[in-house]
């Protein structure tokens, strides 16, 4: 994408000259006739040719001609009519099959239109809502000419004021009509069944099961009836449904749907609600003092713009981290991510014609434009990785390219935080306690280290004693050394006085054979006799169970039984790798005598 020399639009301290500018001017077209907002801008390589294009949901100059427009470089390459005003545009992968080209989703009215290769691919419609039974009954009476249009209007107005279920679009369109237009409207629509369907207010994407950049993503929809819907990326069925106290207008998500995710929804009641996986209702609530005009996630911080001309930083648990006052009203917000330098920042377009870039509450850069900017988008466009696309209030289009040598530094803008924000606050009690503890560790470090070493040796002594006790009292096969993965299972057969003892020894490793093992029996020689109390084990191949058989003869004629301990050792070592205690049964033969 061609670029000319940058103007002095991002002037700040030390950036009055063209050489010090961080941006290159690629395009400034005040007659582009583009009317959209940040949520309806999306950048992606739709054809897999390495050329990133800009797709936008355009409202039209008067809001009556919505279109899907696609720009390549400086040229409008296609435009398609939309049936309703667009609410959001996102790109996402619908499957893992090749070629892995992203799809484009446009939320328009009650539907989501999905395009692949910029061609229609799928249409998802929101499920119908239950209608008001009184409204349905009135339209049935109008269908049978039992009530006149004037009476129908009066009764519908009464239902709208008192009923909990809102009226359908058909009834809402009928109420403001003049008396002369009512009869024609009733005759045209009385044969149609009334339908009540909500519309989409906002949309974003959520990774399905992987966090990779090219992983499959789900669509997350916010609707006018205060619900959030998560759609399956392949079947486009509803995977999850969540309720909110108010209508969502901005969404930010992090995580993966199949693992764990967090969803932040800024709503019309001036609150931000945080939801997590498997939660049907919000877990946390952030109450703002004004209406939100933008929501951007920067790492683990939620940056919220309010109509009181201020930016606020919050954690996901609702803790306010910082506040920055703006010199003018905020018109648009979006995230700036410079991946080559690991930078994430927030962009805020103001009514005075400035675009300010902040990292937390630090001002990094200021861009001045001839006209107020109402939408922002930053990302790869054409073959440039860091491109800023802006649309203005009068329908203009501005494209800037970030220089590859540009480095955002603190104080790179016109002004820093307001003076009231640099006043030192009283240090909290926990912070003072932490500082005191640090000073104490610095002064008494030697004594604390000696105490730690003494406690560590005591812990090792107790662990050794517990180890010996486990060897002496264990009643089941226990692997004592993880470097030799062995499994031992013992079976005793017979009624006595001679028993058959079978040991099943297995190498549980995946690829390494074990050699040089011996088996030793420890028992009371007054009660039992074994032909061999010690024998070698052959080479153990991984995954196979080796039966080792021997015979045990009971010498007691009083029916006394005891425990025989089995030890598996490595040749030349005294510490057993595996041990087991076998409870021998009473000898039936000697007991009968």
UniProtKB/TrEMBL annotation:
Pfam entry (one): BBS1
For molecular function, the Gene Ontology terms on record are: patched binding; smoothened binding
Give every Bardet-Biedl syndrome 1 protein GAE domain span: 486-588
| Domain of life of the organism encoding this protein | Eukaryota
One cellular-component annotation, GO:
centrosome
Supply the InterPro entries for this chain.
BBS1, BBS1_N, GAE_BBS1, Quinoprotein_ADH-like_sf
Q: According to the UniProt record, where is the region Disordered? A: 1-20
BP-aspect Gene Ontology terms: non-motile cilium assembly; protein localization to cilium
Q: Where is the Bardet-Biedl syndrome 1 N-terminal domain?
A: 23-276
Instruction: Tell me the SUPFAM superfamilies matching this sequence.
Output: Quinoprotein alcohol dehydrogenase-like
Q: Any idea what this protein is called?
A: Bardet-Biedl syndrome 1
């Amino acid at each position: 994408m061609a670029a000319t020399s940058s103007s002095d639009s991002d002037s700040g301290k030390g950036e009055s000259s063209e050489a010090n500018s961080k941006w290159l001017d690629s395009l400034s077209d005040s007659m582009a006739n583009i009317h959209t907002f940040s949520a309806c801008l999306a950048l992606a390589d739709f054809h897999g040719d390495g050329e990133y294009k800009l797709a936008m949901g355009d409202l039209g100059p008067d809001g009556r001609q919505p279109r899907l427009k696609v720009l390549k470089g400086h040229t409008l390459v296609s435009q398609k009519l939309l049936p309703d005003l667009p609410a959001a545009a996102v790109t996402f992968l619908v499957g893992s099959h090749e070629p892995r080209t992203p799809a484009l989703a446009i939320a328009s009215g009650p539907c989501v239109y999905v395009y692949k290769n910029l061609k229609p691919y799928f249409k998802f419609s929101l499920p119908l809502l239950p209608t008001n039974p009184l409204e349905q009954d009135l339209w049935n009476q109008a269908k049978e000419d039992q009530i006149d249009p004037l009476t129908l209007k009066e009764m519908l107005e009464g239902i709208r004021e008192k009923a909990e279920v809102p009226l359908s679009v058909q009834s809402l369109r009928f109420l403001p009509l003049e008396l002369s237009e009512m009869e024609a409207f009733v005759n045209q629509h009385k044969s149609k069944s009334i339908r009540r369907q909500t519309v989409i207010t906002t949309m974003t994407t959520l990774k399905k099961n992987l966090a990779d950049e090219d992983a499959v993503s789900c669509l997350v929809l916010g609707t006018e009836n205060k619900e959030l819907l998560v759609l399956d990326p392949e079947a486009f069925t509803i995977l999850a449904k969540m309720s909110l106290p108010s209508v969502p207008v901005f969404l930010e998500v992090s995580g993966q749907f199949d693992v764990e995710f967090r969803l932040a929804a800024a709503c019309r009641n001036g609150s931000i609600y945080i939801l997590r996986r498997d939660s049907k209702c919000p877990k946390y609530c952030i109450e703002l003092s004004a209406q939100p005009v933008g929501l951007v996630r920067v790492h683990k911080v939620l940056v919220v713009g309010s109509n009181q001309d201020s930016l606020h930083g919050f954690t996901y648990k609702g803790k306010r981290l910082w506040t920055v006052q703006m010199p003018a009203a905020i018109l648009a917000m979006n995230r700036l991510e410079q991946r080559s330098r690991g930078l994430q920042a927030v962009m805020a377009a103001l009514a005075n014609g400035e675009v300010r870039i902040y990292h937390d509450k630090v001002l990094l850069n200021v861009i001045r434009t001839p006209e107020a900017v109402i939408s922002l988008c930053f990302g790869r466009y054409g073959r440039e990785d860091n491109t800023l696309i802006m649309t203005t209030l009068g329908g203009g289009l501005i494209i800037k390219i970030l220089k590859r040598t540009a480095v955002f530094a603190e104080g790179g803008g016109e002004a820093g935080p307001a003076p009231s924000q640099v006043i030192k606050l009283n240090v909290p009690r926990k912070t003072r306690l932490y500082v005191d503890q640090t000073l104490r560790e610095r002064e008494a470090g030697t004594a604390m280290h000696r105490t730690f070493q003494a406690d560590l040796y005591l812990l090792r002594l107790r662990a050794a004693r517990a180890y010996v006790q486990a060897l002496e009292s264990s009643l089941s096969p226990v692997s004592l050394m993880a470097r030799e993965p062995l499994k031992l299972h013992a079976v005793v057969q017979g009624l006595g006085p001679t028993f058959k003892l079978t040991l099943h020894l297995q190498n549980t490793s995946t690829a390494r054979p074990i050699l040089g093992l011996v088996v030793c029996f420890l028992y009371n020689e007054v009660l039992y006799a074994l032909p061999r109390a010690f024998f070698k084990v052959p080479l153990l191949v991984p995954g196979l169970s080796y039966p080792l058989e021997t015979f045990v003869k009971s010498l007691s004629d009083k029916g006394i039984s005891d425990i025989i301990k089995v030890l598996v050792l490595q040749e030349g070592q005294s510490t057993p790798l595996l041990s087991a205690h076998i409870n021998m049964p009473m000898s039936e033969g000697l007991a009968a005598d």
